[in-house]
Structures are given as C-alpha cells and as structure tokens.
Design goal:
By secondary structure, the protein is mainly alpha-helical. Helix content is about 75%, strand content about 0%.
Length: about 750
C-alpha cells in the first residue's frame, strides 16, 4: 500500500495518540495496531524530509530573498521616521484649528441669532410705534392687524435688552395688553353702535376684527345676538297671521336663511367648525320662539278644553263606532268637530316643520362637529357651555338640567322645544285617534249602499234581466274609510315620531276591525225584498274585495313615504315605524275571512237556489238509459247542454255587471261548489247504461267548460269527483275501476246493463 495513500487516512488517528496511553497498552492486537500506525507515520516523515532535501536550493534562494527584504525594510523605516514626526506635528495643529473653527461657528450662530433678534426688535419697536400711533388716530383696523402680527413674535424678542422705549420705558407685553384691551372695548362699542343703527357693513367689519384680537368667542356671541335680533325683524310680519303653523314656518325659514347666508363668512374669518357656536345659539333662539308660539297656540285654540271633551267622549261612550244610523249624541257637535280637525291640521303642520328644522340644523352642524371630534380644546372654545345654555332658557321654563351639546351632531340636546315636541306628539295622537274613529264611523254610517243605481231588479236564474244603465258596484264607505286611514298615516309619518306612527297604526287596525264587522253584518241583515238583500250582499263582497286591494296599495305607499321622509332619522326609529306600517297587513286576513263568510251567505240565499233550479230545468225529460238511436239523437241535439248553457249565461249576465272581476271569479267558484254538490246527489239516484254514462261524461265536460269560461280560470279540482263518477258509469262493465273512491264505485249498482256482483 503506498505511503501517500495512508498519510491522509491515518492522520486523524495519529492526532489523538498519547505516549502514556501507548506505554500502558497490554493487548497484543492494540499493540500491533499502534506499531503499524507508528511505522506509517515514520514513512510519512521520511517522505517529507526527502522532499525538503530535494528542494533545498529553492528554499535557500527564498531565505536569501527574505534577508534582503529585511534590510530594505530597515532602510525604508529610517527614511519614514522624519516624515512621521512631521505628520504628528501637523495632526496636533489640525486638532487645535478644528477647536478654534468650532468656536468660531458657535460665535457665528450666536451672532446670527443676535442679528435676528435685533432685526425683530427693530421691527417690533417699529410696530409698537405704529400701534401707538394707530391708537392715537383711532385706526382700529391697522391697530388690530398689528396686534395680530404681535402674536407671532417670539418671546426672546420680547425679552431682548436692545428694546429701549421712549418716555415710560414700559415692557412691550404691557403695551400690547393695554392696546388689546382698549381695542376690544372699542370694537365692541363700534359693533353695538352699528347694530343699533342697523349698519350691516360696519357690523361685518367689526365681526372680522374680533379674531385678530384673539376674542373669537366674544365675536361669535355678539354676532349671534345680532342674528337673533335680525330673526325677530324677519318674523315680525308673520305675527299677523292667525295660523300658528305659518308662524313657525316663517321662524324656521328665517333661521335657515341666516345660517346659510353666514356660513361661509364665519368659516372664512374664524375657521372651520366655529360656525357651530352660532348654529347652537340660533337653535336655542328658535326653540325659545317656537315654544312661545306653541304656548299661544295652546291657549288660543283651547287645546286643553278640546282634549277634555275627547276624553269625556271616550269615557262616556264605550259602544261600537257604527250603528245603523249616524248618531250625534256624543256631546261634540259638527262645529266642534271642525274645530278639532283644524287644530289637528295645524298640529301636523307644526310637527312637520319642527322635524324639518331639526334635520336642517343637523345637516349643517354634523359635518363641522365631526371635524372637531379629535380636538377637545377647540371644542371647549366653540361649544356653548352648560352655564351659557341655562342662561338662554327663560326662568319660567321648568326644565331638568339635562341640556348639553352633542359632540356627534354639534347641536344642543334636550332643549325646551324637546319637551314641547313630546307634548305636541301626545296632542296629535289623541286628536288623530278621535278624528279617525269619528270619521270612519261617519263614513260607514252614511254608506250609500241603499242608494246605488242599477240594483232595482233581483237576480233570477230563469229571466234575462239586465240592469238599466251603468251599475255602481261598490259603496262610498270603502273609499271614504281608506281616505281617512291613509290621511291619518301620512300625518303620523309627517310627525317623524315612531310613537305617533305606532299609535295611529294601532288605531287604524281597530277601526278596520269595526269596518270588517260592519261589512259582515250587511251580508246577514234581513231586508223586506229580495233585491235589497242581494244588493247588500253583493256590494259587501265588492267592498271587501276592493278594500283588500286598497289595503296593500296604502301600506306600500305609506312605507315608501316613511323611508323617504325618515331618511336622516336613526335606524332604530325607522325600524319601529316600518314595523308599525307592516302590522297593517294583518287586516288582509280579516278581510278575506269576512269575504268568505259573505260568499257563504250568498250561496245560501242565492247561489244554491239558482244552481238547483238551473240543474232541475236542464234535466227535465232527460235520462241516461239510452238506446243506440236515442244516443245518436242526443248527440245531434243535446237538450241538457242547451238548457244549461242558456240558463247559466242568463245568470252570468245578471251577476257580472254587479260584481268586480275578481269578486265574480270567487262567486263562480262558489256556484261550482253548489252545482257539484246537488249534481252528485242527483246522479247517485239515477239509472245508467254504458251509452247513458258516455253522454253523462260529455255533459260533465261541457258544464265544466261553461263555468271555466265564466270564471276565466281552471275549475278542474271542483269537477274531479264528477269526472270520476262519469268514468265509472261510462266504461264497459268488464273494465277495472281500481283506484276510484269506494262511494264512486257504488255507482255501478245504478248501471242497468251490469249484473250485481
């Protein structure tokens, strides 16, 4: 094995050999292994020595070169030492120069600062001189501008020792403070004088000077007082109107105009958000004046007395809303009712205007309030404090101490108008409830069912009786009742109070319950002649059907109106209002129940006798045991079908003009039920053969087709059992009748050509 190959493999093993460990080894195999390893290491060393011997000349050459290089380095070191001494001296000088440069730079900065201070001092001295001159010459605009510029001067300049003033040597701060105080008094006096003389140009000039003097609150408060006085002048003309809703409208319109006209002006000279203080002040002024109008309204319109009258009626009259004749024994005359209705109209208009005014102020104030949410210091300067709010409330107003400015909307919460709105809502609910009950009762009591034209003749199945002239299918009470209900709900929506909508919706529900009861009574009341009975039943059916259509339309329209007018209200309020409107849909089920009850009454009094008469007349001299010749004759000339078609058309010609299309469909459906019931009974008592059964099946199909043409729909379900009976009696005797009802299979016993099983 070559020595070079073993060198690398055993190098690691030789690295850990220890002489003490080798001398203590006793195992023969280990000793042999160590011996071999030592031999290999010896061979490796010999190889290295041989290499060194072979390359001796090159090693000597390199050693000689290294010796020469050492001498060169020593010579170079001798040459570098003087240069090193020069560099060390230069570095010391540079450090000293750097220190002096730093000192010079600091002196330069101080000098520049001193120059700036001197410059600012000279400028300040010049401004102070100009200020004193402006104060002497009463140049308020220039003096205010100089005071405003003074606020940008640094404190170092004010404390500068270079300032030397003329005679009194007063500090600049004292001079500026005295000038500012005097200017504020002058501008305030000028503003008040301009207000007294109604000099709007001078008022605007003074208003712009207050922020320069650092008196933003004073300027906003004085300007707010001026705007409140201007509102008084604008609304003075409205005082001649006796309609209090018009007075409130004029008041709110004046405030809205003032807010819009001065919004940009305040923002330009005072900054964003500061207009909130004026809006809050105008809100309080509007609330105060609106409360005064409502106080006069309550007194002059005698609202308390009218409410007491209504409450006495409610206590003294716990009976149904409607009787057969209109009654006037409730203690309230027609004149009183007209007064109550006029008060209600004014209350609705006032409530609508108050809600619109609140939404307008919120639309103007809320964006500005959101800008100040993260700046409490500016909020404190802009918002009216609780103490200021309480001073704006008259001492006669016993309000709880809950007024505050809402940081989210920027408006005053719980003003004195808030309690008056609650009172207004309560008054509205009581008046509207009474008017709805009284109006609906009157509408139903004055129903013109008995005076409708075209109802003189009764419906007779065997007579072609057509109405003379156009027939009026519904009475007046349906339109009147829904007009009252829709008007009341629109009033409630206009008030923009969820409580009002809920109360009126409940009132309408109760009133419609009475309407449904009255319509049901019309169908069962006994009258002298048949024509009157039929008229009341059929008109009641039409009324109920039309009422269901009007109901859905009314609910949809009122819901749309609520979503439109309540768009800016909180979601909780909108949800309450929508739920109250949607609750009116429950009336639909009551209308359908009353309609079905009326149809049952119509079936008993008219449809069953007519259909029985038609069936008996059509089956006169008709049999279903036919020979081949008789079968052929009946096919060519079917008397049953001819008679039935003639009579049913006559009946349809009388009923169709008297009923609405949808109501006529329901009546035809009831006619089918009456016909099928009597026909099934008659067929079970008749005899058949197969040819007669085939003819009976054709008759059933023909009758079904006739009635479907009258109804304008499919009546397959009504005739399902008759079709089964016809199939049983028309099929051959040996045909299976599996899957047919047991009572239908019993008809096989009526087949004369089938032997009993």
């Amino acid at each position: 094995m070559p020595v070079e190959a073993l060198m690398d493999d055993d190098l690691d093993e030789l690295a850990w050999l220890n002489l003490d460990d080798v001398s203590q080894t006793l195992d023969v195999s280990e000793i042999e292994h160590l011996y071999q390893t030592l031999e290999l290491e010896e061979a490796r060393i010999e190889v290295e020595i041989s290499d060194c011997v072979e390359h001796r000349n090159s090693v000597d050459t390199r050693l000689a070169q290294l010796s020469a290089l050492h001498k060169s380095v020593e010579a170079t070191s001798l040459l570098v030492k003087p240069m090193q001494r020069v560099i060390d001296a230069t570095a010391g000088n540079a450090g000293a120069i750097s220190g002096h440069v730093r000192e010079l730079d600091q002196e330069r900065v101080k000098l520049e600062h001193a120059l700036n201070t001197v410059k600012e001092t000279v400028e300040l001295k010049s401004r102070l001189s100009e200020l004193l001159t402006a104060m002497e010459t009463r140049d308020v605009d220039r003096a205010s501008l100089l005071v405003h510029e003074y606020k940008a001067t640094s404190s170092d300049t004010l404390d500068s020792p270079f300032i030397a003033f003329a005679s009194d040597s007063s500090p600049p701060r004292d001079i500026i403070a005295a000038a500012t105080k005097e200017l504020v008094e002058r501008v305030t006096f000028m503003f008040n004088t301009a207000v007294e003389s109604n000099n709007t140009r001078e008022i605007g000039r003074c208003f712009r000077l207050f922020p320069q003097l650092g008196e933003t609150q004073r300027g906003l408060d004085l300007y707010s007082e001026f705007l409140c006085a201007a509102i008084t002048d604008k609304t003075r003309l409205a005082q001649v109107h006796t309609t209090y809703a018009l007075r409130i409208t004029r008041l709110f319109e004046a405030i809205a105009s003032v807010v819009d006209n001065n919004f940009a002006l305040v923002e330009q000279y005072y900054g964003r958000g500061y207009v909130l203080r004026i809006i809050q002040r105008l809100q309080m002024e509007g609330a105060r004046r609106a409360c005064l109008v409502l106080d006069f309204f309550e007194e002059e319109r005698q609202v308390k007395r009218r409410l007491a009258q209504i409450q006495q009626v409610d206590v003294a009259k716990p009976r149904p809303l409607v009787k057969a004749k209109a009654e006037k024994d409730d203690g309230i005359s027609d004149g009183d009712f007209k007064d109550i209705a006029s008060i209600l109209a004014e209350v609705v208009l006032i409530g609508r205007q108050v809600a619109a005014f609140n939404r307008f102020l919120e639309s103007r104030a809320q964006p500005e309030a959101l800008l100040l949410l993260g700046d409490p210091e500016t909020q404190a300067r802009v918002f009216l404090s609780t103490e200021s709010l309480n001073k704006l409330v008259p001492l006669s107003s016993a309000l709880p101490n809950t007024m505050h400015v809402d940081a989210q909307t920027g408006l005053v919460a719980h003003t004195q108008l808030t309690s008056r709105v609650e009172w207004l809502t309560n008054v509205y609910v009581e008046l509207e409830t009474f008017c709805v009950q009284r109006s609906m009762a009157k509408a139903m009591a004055l129903d013109d069912t008995n005076e409708l034209s075209g109802w003189d003749s009764a419906v007779i199945s065997d007579v072609e009786a057509r109405a003379q002239g156009p027939m009026v299918q519904t009475s007046s009470c349906v339109g009147d009742v829904f007009f009252v209900a829709k008007t009341a709900l629109e009033h409630a929506v206009a008030m923009q109070q969820p409580r009002a909508v809920e109360a009126i919706a409940q009132c309408v529900l109760e009133a419609f319950g009475e309407f449904v009861r009255v319509m049901g009574q019309q169908a069962v009341e006994k009258w002298a002649d048949v024509a009157s009975v039929q008229r009341r039943i059929l008109v009641a059916l039409n009324n109920l059907d039309l009422a269901n259509v009007y109901l859905q339309k009314m609910v949809d329209e009122v819901r749309i109106r609520l979503n439109t007018e309540w768009a800016r209200l909180p979601e909780t309020d909108k949800t309450k209002g929508q739920n109250a409107i949607d609750s009116l849909s429950a009336i639909s089920s009551k209308l359908l129940q009353a309609q079905q009850h009326s149809i049952d009454q119509l079936s008993t009094s008219l449809l069953k006798p007519c259909m029985r008469s038609i069936l008996q007349h059509s089956y006169r001299d008709i049999k279903y045991v036919l020979s081949d010749e008789e079968f052929n004759d009946v096919q060519s000339d079917n008397l049953f079908q001819q008679r039935f078609n003639l009579r049913i058309r006559k009946l349809g010609h009388q009923l169709r003009p008297r009923l609405l299309p949808s109501t006529y469909t329901l009546v035809v459906d009831a006619m089918c039920a009456c016909l099928v019931y009597d026909w099934e009974r008659a067929i079970r008592q008749s005899k058949f053969n197969m040819l007669g059964g085939m003819m009976f099946e054709k008759d059933v199909r023909f009758v079904q087709l006739c009635l479907e043409q009258e109804a304008g729909g499919v009546l397959r379900a009504k005739f399902a059992k008759l079709v089964q009976m016809a199939r049983v009696v028309a099929e051959p005797a040996e045909t299976s009748v599996a899957g047919v009802d047991k009572d239908v299979r019993a008809l096989l016993a009526n087949r004369v050509d089938v032997q009993p099983n």
